[in-house]
Specification:
Blueprint (H helix, E strand, L loop, with lengths): L26 E4 L4 E4 L4 H34 L1 H9 L2
Antiparallel strand pairs: 1-2
């Protein structure tokens, strides 16, 4: 069974520099241990990040995957292979 903790003393949010206390304390759980860890950000910042930054992160990953797939297709195309084969 995982156990929740309390905010470490003298902890500040790494974004807003506000004091982290029991009213704005956030924890996250890792797998497979299911251990809870104190977040280094206050609850309002975590909420904002979840609402905005996570979708931006997913969009960036999707764009990178498309760009990477296009680059791989160019690398394995016949023209690219022929040019590289001439160098061997």
């Amino acid at each position: 069974m995982s156990i929740h903790g309390k905010p470490p003393p003298d902890t500040e949010c790494m974004c807003s520099f506000e004091e982290i206390n029991e009213s704005n304390f956030v924890e996250y759980q890792t797998a497979p241990s299911e251990t809870w860890h104190p977040a280094k950000f206050s609850e309002p910042i975590v909420r904002e990040m979840l609402e905005t930054s996570f979708q931006r992160y997913l969009d960036d990953v999707e764009k990178a995957a498309r760009d990477c797939a296009a680059a791989v297709r160019r690398l394995v195309s016949k023209e690219s292979f022929a040019c590289n084969a001439d160098r061997l």
